[in-house]
Each structure stands twice: as C-alpha cells, then as structure tokens.
Description:
2 copies of one chain form a homodimer. With 346 residues, chain A is of the alpha/beta class. Chain A is built from 12 helices and 12 strands. Chain A has helices at 15-22, 26-34, 41-54, 60-65, 83-98, 112-126, 139-148, 171-185, 200-215, 232-244, 257-269, 303-319; strands at residues 72-77, 102-107, 129-133, 152-155, 166-169, 190-193, 225-226, 251-254, 279-284, 297-300, 327-330, 333-335. In chain A, α1 (15-22) crosses α2, α5 (83-98) packs parallel to α12 (303-319) and α8 (171-185) packs parallel to α9. Chain A is elongated. The model of chain A is unreliable at 1-9 (pLDDT under 50). Chains A and B meet through α4, α5, β2, α6 and α10 of A and α4, α5, β2, α6 and α10 of B. Chain A binds a DNA duplex (30 and 30 nucleotides) through α2 and α4.
Amino acid sequence: MRAKQRDKDSDRITIIDIGKEAGVSYATVSRVINNKGNVNTDARERVLRAMTQLGYVANVQARSLAGGRSYVVGLLVQDLGTGYIGEIIRGIDDELAKAQYNLMLFTTHRRKVKESLFVTNLTKGSADGLLLVLPRNAEAYLESLRRRGFPYVLIDHQGIDELGPSVGASNWQGAFDATSYLIKLGHRRIGFITGTLELGCSQKRLEGYKAALRANDLAIDPTLIQEGDFYQPSGYKGAIELLKISQRPTAIFASNDSMAFGVMEAVREQGLSIPNDVSIIGFDDVPQAANVHPRLTTVRQPLEQMGRVATTMLLETINNPERPPEKLELATELIIGGTCQAPRSV
Amino acid sequence: MRAKQRDKDSDRITIIDIGKEAGVSYATVSRVINNKGNVNTDARERVLRAMTQLGYVANVQARSLAGGRSYVVGLLVQDLGTGYIGEIIRGIDDELAKAQYNLMLFTTHRRKVKESLFVTNLTKGSADGLLLVLPRNAEAYLESLRRRGFPYVLIDHQGIDELGPSVGASNWQGAFDATSYLIKLGHRRIGFITGTLELGCSQKRLEGYKAALRANDLAIDPTLIQEGDFYQPSGYKGAIELLKISQRPTAIFASNDSMAFGVMEAVREQGLSIPNDVSIIGFDDVPQAANVHPRLTTVRQPLEQMGRVATTMLLETINNPERPPEKLELATELIIGGTCQAPRSV
DNA sequence: AATTCTCGTGCAAACGTTTGCAGCAAATAT
DNA sequence: ATATTTGCTGCAAACGTTTGCACGAGAATT
C-alpha cells in the first residue's frame, strides 16, 4: 500500500518508466545513469532518449538511501553579513553547480553548540561532504569525521595543527607585503588593527606586520597596535584611538576591509583627508572595497578562488576517499587603490 | 545484499535497534517519533529512553522516501553580497532551526534559467517547501507550483498580481514617510535614486516619493530622479549627477542603503558635508547603516522579521496544505540617524 | 567440437522509513 | 454471558534507487 497519496499530477517518472519506454530493465537504466557496468550502445541510446523524452529527474532520497550519493554538501559558516562569506560562497556555489551538487547552508551565528549539532546531523546521511569556513569549535568533531572517513575541507582555518585538508591564503605574506609597501612609501609610524586574535589568520597578519617592521629596522610600538574583531565598528574605534596619539600614525593597516571602512569613516570624521593625511590599507578585497572612493588599497584574498578550490578538493575526496589530504595556501596580492600615498612630512 | 559497505564505525542506529532496545516493534518506534496513533505511555517512555541512550538520528532520506517529510526547505536568492539578504536569512534560519528544519540554498546570480531549473529539481522530492526572495522569473514556475499544491512563500515580491502567499514591506508608505520627513525639515529640492525598476518594490518606493511631493504641493522634477540598480556604484553615480545640477538638491533619498553609501561617498568627495550641505536618507536599514558615521537615516525594513514571518507561513502551509494563502505587508519605520538636517538656506 | 571467457542483461535484495490493515486483549455495552 | 467497541501493537508493503549474482549468448580458446 502506498504510504502517501501522491499528488495526482506530480508526474513522477521513475527508472521503471524509463525502462519500459526503452525496452530494458530498470537495472540497466540505473547502469546507464551511473555509467557503471557494460551497457550495449544501442540500449544506452534508447535509455537516454527515453530519459529526455519523459523528463526524468532522479529521486535523490532513494538514490542516497540505496547507497549512492546524496549530491549535497554541507556548508558551515558563522554569518552572512559581510561580503567576505558571500565571495567564498560564490566560488563554492559555482563549482558545485558544475558537478550537479546542491548546497545545504548552516549558519552558526558563532554559537559553538550549534556547530557540533549540525555536523553530526549532516554527516549522518544528509550530505556527502562538508565545507567548514572559519570553524570555531572544530576540535569537537574533526577527530570523529576523520575517523569515520567523512570528507571535509577547512576554509581559511590556519591554526591548530591540522591533519585534514584545508585551503587558506598567505596571511603572513600579505600583511608583510602591505606593511612593506607603506614603509617604501615613506611611512614610519604605521598603525595596525588586528582581527579576532583567537583565529589563526589574525595572528598571521599581525606577525606579518611586525616582521615587515623588523625587516626595515623600525621599532614595534605597542601603542600603534589596536585590537579589533573584524567588524566595522571596531575599525572605527581603533582608528579613533590611533588618531588620538600625539605623534599620530601616518598610515593605518586594518586586518580586514570591513574594519578599513570603519577607519575611513573615522579619519574623515576627524576632518582629515584620505590619503593626504592618513594612508589606509585593508585586507580581503571584498567587492565593496572597489566601490568606495577612493578605491581601497588592500591585500586581495582570492576568496572566490578559495571557495572554488576547496570545493574541488572536497569533490575529489568524495570521489576518491583514498586521496591524501592536501593543504593549500593561495597567494594574496596587493591591490593598489587610492587610499595610500607618501606621508606629507617626508 | 548490502548495496554499499557501511563504514565500520559509522554507528548508524535505526528504529529497529531502538525497537529491540525498548522491546517493541519498529513500527511503534515510528509512531512515537511522529506522534501518530496511540502508544502506551509506558512503551513510549521506553522508546524515548532508548532513543536518547543510543543516540538515534533519523535518516532523512528514508523518511522522505517513505512519504514523510524531508525537513528541508529550499531558499532561492540572487546573491549574498549585500547585507540585505543576510538579514533575511538570519530570520529564516532561526525560525527553521526551531522547527528542526534545514536550509538548502540556491543562488541564481540573477540568471533566470538557473531559477527554473532549481525549482523543478527541488520540488521533485528534495524539499518540503520553497522560499523565494525577489524572484525574477517567477511566472515560469509559480503556476506549476500552485497547481501541484507545492508550498511556497514569496519574499519582498510585490508586483505581478499574485495568488500565492507572500511577505513584503510597506514600500510605498516607507518612501512616503521618508520624503515627508525631508520636506518637514524644510527641503524643497529632493533628489531620488531608484532601484531596479523591473522590481515591484522599486516602483512602490518611487511612487511613495512622488506622492509625498504632491501631497506638499511640490513639483515633481524629473531631473531630480536618477535611475539606480540597488548597488553602491549606481548610488555614487546618481549622486554625482544630482550634485552637478545648477540648483542642486539639498537632500538625496536613495532607494536602498547600499546606494545611500554610494551617495555619502560622492557627497564627501565633492568636499561637501553630511548633513550640513546635503541630507541623505536610505532604505532597508542594513546593519552597516548603523556603522557609518554619522549613522544613516533610513527606512527600516524589518528584514529579519520578514524572513521569520515568511518561514512561519511556509511551515504552517506545509503542516496544513489547505491553509489559504496569505499576503502580508509588514510596516516600515523611519530610523532617524545623523545624515539629515534642515537645509542651510532656509 | 567442446570448453572457457566475456559481455550484456535481468532478478531481487537492501537502504530506513511511514502507514494501512489485521489481530488481540481489555473494556464497555447489550 | 455474549457481542461490540476501543486501545495498542505488529506485520508487511511501499517509496525509488544501487548493485551483487546468475544466466544466456556469442566469441575466443583449446
């Protein structure tokens, strides 16, 4: 007996229908669809024709229940507010579409409990793999994923020694380059606003900044370093503090673009001009960075590319579970906009 | 024979295991889970205990295959770049989590073909319902959804006469209020930057603006109306044009916040001060509107609330398909920030 | 000419649920 | 005391796939 009365005209076509139409068994249809086993060229063609003719759409539930794929990957992010995630998702999305995969989105809103909960649910059947952007509670479940051989890829998660596959960007080098650029322009007092320091990428950026100063025999002045949290208000606040200093910095390097926008606000509000009075540099190159005036000078993280590469890696792992985990660090690039110039006083 | 060798320690617990543990048949377990039919209180308790003890997680595929729910709703959006969508998703997400539902995300990147494709795929089994944010190609599939009785809710889609359920905001009233506010402050020449005019909400906002002018016996000057597309650069460009006018407007009303940010940029770049020289007002009240300085005066759309309400409506329709479609228009609210004041010359 | 191999195909089991139906015991009505 | 209802439970079918196994026919080997 049917468990549920199917809507009259939800014209569900199954492989059985296709089989009948093509004059083969449904098993053969399945073989054609999955390119498994040998199928007579003639029969294969009849099947394919029947499929397009009847408008066959596979039932994902049945498929994955029977041991096939669910053709879903889960994506775990903190929130969607900033352009940062949007760019990454663009890459993921695009790459998934190519492989006919679907995306299940989970936003944790930075609540750690949610994170673990999602992961267990997802990995028990709903998804074929998992993408984790900047996870905060990774230790809680990564071990279990690894043990069970469940495919996953970390995005932008430098930090805790990690055995699994991951994709990131050259945070240290990017910060080093940006700082070096400011020094080369003639800046000597360069303010720095950090990101959330519990994240690996924030640490790396701070280290890159310091390393560049040292490489140029400049002192590291702690009063020039403000702690931020990657959100715009903390950039604003940090800049206000930095501009209060008697011998105020001639340049400010914010650990991401959102905070750099906050810095721009603060500088202008103080009646100072960008870049005449203060040079500003950001990190990420989110789309909005190209929309402000003057265009923000920033360290481009290939965000879309990161999403893309991570997805490719994940899909490859799904297709070949034996694939050894790979750790990729994509290169950042200094994008010269209009927010930096040589300091006046030089 | 097993179709697929299950990973050794992917300790999958089924209702059969629960049944054994609790000393009842698996059918009874199912009844407990779904709260269907009568189950002895004692047995029910044993089952529940066994479930928590063994850590049961339902297999969604099997469940929906057997005619139950998939506990997934699909969400169709254009892109994730702006805070606008992020806010809506926050509401959706939250409401879904409460009902133990999952979110499948589809970004169309404004390509209409993708839109229809997603919809057919989703509705053939993967999802229990569909949320559509600002769809562009709705005519192509809405009719079919309605006919098949597939639950869906439109978000922020005013426009084409629509029989189905939808949630929007009072675009006309919001624009009317904002314009009236500027007029009350003493502004007589008020620039307006439209959104994408093919969208219903853009039309309504434009009409609201015009209506407010008329209500105050002010002429509608077409040179004061610039066409935009909801993205920041178009706000910048529109403002540049408006500021060129010999008798330039003393206030500019942008049809959304992104464009208002562009306007702020343009105004400052021209060496003008906000709000001394030019008052600015936006629409949406995205989080960033509170982060710029001075805080943007804007018309708040209850975005999160819209997502929340739409989700509630969708879930109700899923639970009770007979539920008559409802059309909701949530009230907007004028948020007074620091970007408006009385014009100097008055 | 008899044997083995390969290729193509169909049968049927399995995946983990939901739910109609039947059965049985206890409670109620006659 | 018998008949009927009611409450609870189990059985088994169905959902739409994937895939191991078996079988038959022709090709290749001996």
